[in-house]
Amino acid sequence: MEQISLASGMRVATLLERMGRAGVLGAGSLGRAFEVTVEMLQDPEYTVFLTLGGPMIPGGLRRIVQMLINRGLVDAVVTSGANIVHDIIESLGYSAVKGSFYADDSSLRTASIGRAGDIFFPQEGFIAFEKKTYAVLDAIPETRRRELSVSELLELYGGSLGDEASFLAAAAARKTPVFAPALLDSMLGFHIWTYSQLHSLHLDQVKDMSRLADAVYEAEKVGAIILGGGASKHFLLGANTLREGLDAAVQITLDRPEGGSLGGAPLEEAVSWKKAKAGKLVTVVGDATMVFPILAAGALERMGML
Question: Does 233 participate in catalysis according to the annotation?
């Protein structure tokens, strides 16, 4: 191993390279993740998927995700419905605010504020989001509302936002598919359901599975950047059984493996299921809202894009 040295004006990429040369513990993992990430983003043979589990968008990663999409570095996004909801709410002018992990939740309820960790969400944003969702659905011809896939609906929604900071709008503009396998487990899913009680609406999730399967099967190589776990992670891993597994992947998670959860499972576990191929797999234990900006900044620096 080599000790990590610092220098005035050091670039993020240089620091990550030196962490990689140290080679051990968390620094070594992050250094290896950096090299695999750069390879995936630079090599045109890779089809790169970014998965988002947990509050990545309200946690500060919105503009980074949008930048990666706009620069053509990410070919598809797989996300929880909640991250889509928060992207839309920010597009409507309602931002989450800094709160406290130790807030009085009864008082927050009285004040119409929801909480995720130390992120506070005033309910005014969700009211605007509900109205916007109904307006988007109303604008879709009834015949098409009967055969939409989730990714098609999200492309239409993103196209209506007009917000340069929105990852959903960026994806719509570039025709980058956004998959949300557990969309109903979100406020967007709830409003889709309430809308369907009064109007003709059917979302075809099998159609999305086919779209993802085609992208995976036709790719020369498949790479993944996995932030958190959940349905987003597994939807992508499962599809890659069609090609004997991912060719390369980086995972950033705080979850532990002892409980057998998917979020805590090291990527090597996916090799046993033929969801990933052994070799270029790196799990970094850490908060993705801390680790991923450093990793992304270093990769963009190395590639001359920052």
Answer: no
